[in-house]
Write a structure and sequence with these properties.
The structure is a single chain. With 368 residues, the protein is of the alpha/beta class. The chain has a domain of 175 residues: FAD/NAD(P)-binding domain (3-Layer(bba) Sandwich). The protein has 9 helices and 17 strands. The protein has an 8-stranded mixed sheet with strand order 6-5-11-12-13-10-14-17, with helices on both faces. Helix 1 packs parallel to helix 5 and helix 5 runs antiparallel to helix 6. It is globular, with a radius of gyration of 20 Å. The two termini are 38 Å apart. The C terminus is likely disordered.
Amino acid sequence: MKETINVIGAGPAGLTAAIVLRRHGFPVRVYEMSPHVGHRLSGDFQGFENWSSERDVTAVLKETGIEMNFLYVPYYGGTLFAPEMKPAEISSDRPIFYLVRRGPMPGTLDTGLKEQALSMGVEILFNHRLDPGSSTGKTVVGTGPKRADAAIVGITFNTDGKDTVGVIFDNDIAPDGYAYVMVHEGRGTMAAVLYRDFRRGNECFGKMLDFFRDKMDIDVKDEKRFGGYGNIFLRDTQIQGDSLYVGEAAGFQDALWGFGMRYAVMSGRLAAESLINGSNYDMLWKRELKPMIETSLVNRYLYAGFGHTGYRHLTRQFLKGRPCDYLRKHYEPSFLKRFLLPPAKRHHDRQGMMHRGKFHGLFNKNQR
C-alpha cells in the first residue's frame, strides 16, 4: 500500500498536489487551519495569466488533470490608462488572461478544486493545523505568503454595467504597480496593487475609485472592501527534510504583476510528480519555474525603474497588437536578463526590508 501524503494548506498549490497524487493512487490528507477553502478571499475576480508561455494555461490545467468546474472566462483585451496618454483599447488574438473568482462560495476556483479533490477521495481536515516540522512522512507545504512584497486594496461590488476590463499604470494611483477593474455578469472587482508606499493604501484606493468612476462610468453598488498581499522570493532549495514547499510558501510568484496562480498549479503538480516518480523536486522546479521567476524579477526591476516613461512605452507596444507575444518575449531568459538579475535581486531584497510591518491595519490579510 502506498504511503499517505500530508498536504498542509488547501490553496490552489496544495489542492493541485493532492489531486495529482490521488489520481496516481496515493492516499492524501489535507490539513487546512481555516473552516473552509478560500477563507482569506472575498469573491474577487483574479486572472490566470496567459502570456508567460506559448502554451495556453487551459492546456496546463488539463494536462495536470484539473477540470474546469469553476468560473473561467477568457478575456482578449481591455482599456489601458497611462499618464499623459489617451485611453488605449488593447486587443489580442489569444486570451490575455482567464478570469476566475476566488473565495469559499460556489463557482470559485477554490471551491472547484476542493470539490474535485473530495470526489477523488482526498481527505480534507478543516480547522486542523499541522506544523511542517511535526509532520511525519512525505509532506507538501502550501501555506501561502509569509511577508508582503506587494499589497492590494480593493472592493468587490455589484453593477449594472457591461462586462469590461480596465487597467491603470500610474504611480500616483498605484506606486510601482497598477490598478484594475474587472466586471463580469453584474459583478465587479476593483483594486490597486502597490509595490511600495503601502501606507498610502487608503489614499490610492480613493484615487482609483474616482478615476474608474470618471473614465469608465462604472456604477458601484453593494461594495465590500478587501485587502491582501503577495510574497515573492527565491531560495536554493524548496526541500526541507521530508517537506516540499509549493506556491507562495515557496515564494513562487510573478514578480512583475503578481499573477501567481499558474505558478501555484505548476508547483503543486511538480511536487506531486517528484513524490510519484521519486525524482528530485528541486531539479523539477528549477527547470520549469526558476527561469520565469528570475526574468519576472528583472521585469519588476525595469518596470519600477522606468516609471511613467516605461508605462507609456508598454502601452504603445500593446497597441501594436499581439500583446501576449510581446510579454512572453520578456519572460524568456537572455544574456541581458542574466546580467541584470543580481541588481534586480538586491533591489527586491531592499524593498522587502522596507515594507515589513507597514500595514498598520490598512489591509485584511488575504492572499492575492
